[in-house]
Amino acid sequence: MTQESEAAIAVVRRNTEEVQGKGDWSLFEELFADDFVDHTPQPGTTPDKDGVRALYRALREGFPDFRADIKWQIASGGMVTTYKIYHGTQTGPILGIAPTGRAVEFETVDVMKVTDGRITDHWGVGNLLKMLVQLGAVTI
């Protein structure tokens, strides 16, 4: 693996573990480029740095114990693909769902582009249906 790929993986891992998992908002500001673009924004967010910040805050408020178990990461240059399983217990509102006290786990695959040590772009797919079923908001 190249040094560029290793460095890019380290940036994405720090975002997953320290920003998403611990709510380190000053690190968020450091890791995300000001012109960041989310190519797959979640409902109710904007496709920019403000939108992803709002999403991360909503996840931390809805699931204060929110964390990711990174299963694998691979990089080609500055493009990092991560497969992870998110875990949390819903004690706050999320996506319009009142707190349930239920634990969830759902899979996500993300691709993040890292340029000069900062995350500039994101593409991702999360199994939100699984999360909504676990919260009792949807039955299948």
Could you characterize the architecture of this molecule?
The protein has helices spanning 3-20, 25-31, 49-62, 128-134, and strands at 32-38, 67-76, 79-89, 103-115, 118-126. The protein is of the alpha+beta class and 140 residues long. The chain has one domain: Nuclear Transport Factor 2, Chain: A (Roll), CATH 3.10.450.50. Strands 1-5-4-3-2 form a five-stranded mixed sheet. Helix 1 (3-20) runs antiparallel to helix 2.
Provide the succession of SSEs.
Answer: HHEHEEEEH
The structural domain count equals 1
Strand order of the largest sheet: 1-5-4-3-2
Mean pLDDT: 96
Largest sheet: 5 strands, mixed
Task: Give me the number of helical elements.
Answer: 4
**Spatial separation of the terminal alpha carbons:** 43 Å
CATH-derived topology: Nuclear Transport Factor 2, Chain: A
The rounded Rg comes to 15 Å
Query: What structural category characterises the helix and strand content?
Result: alpha+beta
Helix content: 25-40%
The CATH class designation is: Alpha Beta
CATH structural architecture: Roll
Proportion of β residues? 35-45%
**Sequence stretches where pLDDT stays below 50 over 5 or more residues:** none
Global shape: globular
Number of strands: 5
Keywords summarizing the entry:
single chain, 140 residues, alpha+beta, Nuclear Transport Factor 2, Chain: A, 4 helices, NTF2-like_dom_sf, Cyclase_SnoaL-like, Ester cyclase
